[in-house]
Amino acid sequence: MSSGMSSRLSVNKTYKQFIGGAFERSESGRSYPVTGAGGELLAHAVRGSRKDVRDAVAAARLAQEGWAGRTAYNRGQILYRVAEVMESRRDEFCVEVLRATDGSSEAIAAEETAAAIDRWVWYAGWADKFPTVLGGANPVAGPYFNLSVPEPVGVVGLVAPDEPPLLPLVSRLAPVIVSGNTAVVLASERCPLAAVTLAETLALSDVPAGVVNIITGHRDELVPPLAGHVAVDSLDLTGCDSEQGTAAARQAAATITRVVSASTAERQWADEAAQSPYLIDAFCETKTVWHPKGR
Amino acid sequence: MTDRSSPDREVAPVGEFTLDYAPAPESTAPVRLASQHGLYVGGEMVEPAAGRLVPTINPATGEALAEVSVADAADVDRAVAAARAAWEGGWRDLPGAERAKYLYRVARLLQERAREFAVLETMDGGKPIRESRDLDIPLAAAHFFHYAGWADKLDYAFSGRRAAPLGVAAQVIPWNFPLLMAAWKLAPALACGNTVVLKPAPTTPLTALLLAEVLRDAELPPGVVNIITGDDATGAALVSHPGVDKVAFTGSTEVGRAIGADVAGTGKRLTLELGGKAANIVFEDAALDQVTEGIVNGIYFNGGQVCCAGSRLLVQETVVDTVVGKLQRRMDTLRVGDPLDKNTDIGAINSQAQLARIAELVASGVAEGAELYTPQCVLPERGFFHPPALFTKVSTAHRIAQEEIFGPVLSVLTFRTAEEAVAKANNTPYGLSAGIWTEKGSRILWMADRMQAGVVWANTFNRFDPASPFGGYRESGHGREGGRAGLLPYVELVV
Predict the structure, then answer these.
(1) Quick check: pTM over 0.80?
(2) B493 contacts in A (CB within 8 Å)?
(3) Hey, what domains does chain B have and what are their CATH numbers?
(4) Is-contact B205 B268, C-beta < 8 A?
(5) Of B213, B261, B210, B266, whose CA–CA distance to B241 is shortest?
(6) β-pair partners for B316
(7) Which residue of the set B26, B131, B307, B404 is catalytic?
(8) Interface pTM (ipTM) of the complex?
């Protein structure tokens, strides 16, 4: 044997989809090559199918009532644990971000990873506060108790932006699930690997199975079945281009599905504008309860 | 087709002397109605470009009250341009405290002319004068008063964010609460610094046009509010106009879908307040006499032409006979007739088309095997009227249990457990409102948590207040009107 072969051969990861708490290949058996900034092959990611999208929506639907039924304190701790687990795998995320992104550097990758971790911490703290800030007692003109509370809308379909690979995904996902929604995420088509690694940290963070489901593959195949699914209650189309987003919003209109997309300011991912309790609100319904007062 | 066999109903012998109300009609003297109406654009009444006029009908008589303009695409263009000019020309930069004072003026002027508005609302729309006088008009004024106070307090409304106006809002409103819906739309839009093109419903344009007088008298700058009457094509031209930044629509889910598709990809902000099929849920421990009043208010208020009407009555099986008996006796006392009569409980149905739709759905209920009860009441010979109706033996699959009827028609279904009540209540694509009747507090809160509905009335029904957010889950629309939540559809939040 030559000396070149005596160094240890690395064990490469198989990047799978994350559906209902399990890491699975596509039922279609398809994959697609994912290349790095220099054009080198990084991995073969799963090329998910419309059937995978439907399975993911079913898993999200199944998990939603239980997740929303957790106490706010519990959801807050689980989101905080996501940050803890990400922090412990920080180097891995840095490498994931660095090799996926054109023109990146170790410093940029480290910054993005740190910001993504901090974003989980920020939203974790909102779990037991956003209803106080967004809802409250309403002083109606009559002898009635009247209270408005934000409630999760249900299942959210989230099309993650293509780049950067990690921070935008976390910035859109955390406000969706903190209130008790479950999510079906279409990962970045060009750099989906960080999303799969994120799924692995979610699986280790006591996030219940089905709360976050991550599909990888081609957007033009995956957005239509997601946008047209009747069990999807709200859509975040931030990652769609204009044509794709318009078509998806048209589909959504058939079932009065709420459609959200990040504003230009919100797309400055490292800025204060990218995180807000009103992003939590965008995936909530306000419920108002009346009761008479009397002896 | 009429089942009169309720368990403990007393039937007066034929020929016996009965007490009845003498007619008590409200005077129409305060209303001075022009025979023809133009469009309110840029602060003045203008002729429609194509000169097309249509009559608006008093549904209680079937006779025309006046002729109103039908705005076409050119008129929409003109109105949107006027709204844009007013926005850029100063309204968006006006200090909130000044916007507030305009809105306070509008509220006061509405209060001052309340009687006139109430009578006109009843003449044009057919709702009982008792309702337009005691609910529609006072609430419309209250809505302006409430949002007036927000105009200079937007910095306190949103944590860590500043609220910026969106621009020109296109607002299309329905015929069931004409002035009130105009107030719900206009007040928050103006408070947040937007300008508006408002389109009232084809069958009820007159109070919106009278509101134009109020806006003029309040010296609201020209173009800040433009009011264009017309038909469905007018509404479609307005929401799809490229000069519009925000679309707000209240009406049917069917039209809501079309608007959603039209607005897709344009960047216009959208709020929808659509249909409903509310469950009104009665547990066996509820105070059944109060429940009876609540059910009647829930479904026969405004002749059931209410998107949040409690049209599906879910009664716990143990008390269904008692509840239905009480309800039938109460229905027998409801007075159907001249909406201008102060003793009238159920006025005219808004239009012939709506009456036909109600009649068709009632016929479907009978055909599908449900049992119909209507009190013996003499309906006026002219106009569009429908007696209060109650269906028993309804199954969840029946059309009358699934489709929004928008009329005085109640379907009674039963349940055994709270879990079953939740499942049946949520078994609809809608999610606007729900009612819960029980004396047990913990059960109210448990049920309220599980209702897929934007408004939950517990031991009451059909309460509205400008401070209280209103709007639906699922296919009942998105966005809220009322309270702080009602500001959000009209602002962009910036750091």
Answers:
(1) yes
(2) 276, 278
(3) 36-274+473-494 (3.40.605.10), 279-458 (3.40.309.10)
(4) no
(5) B266
(6) B415
(7) B307
(8) 0.94
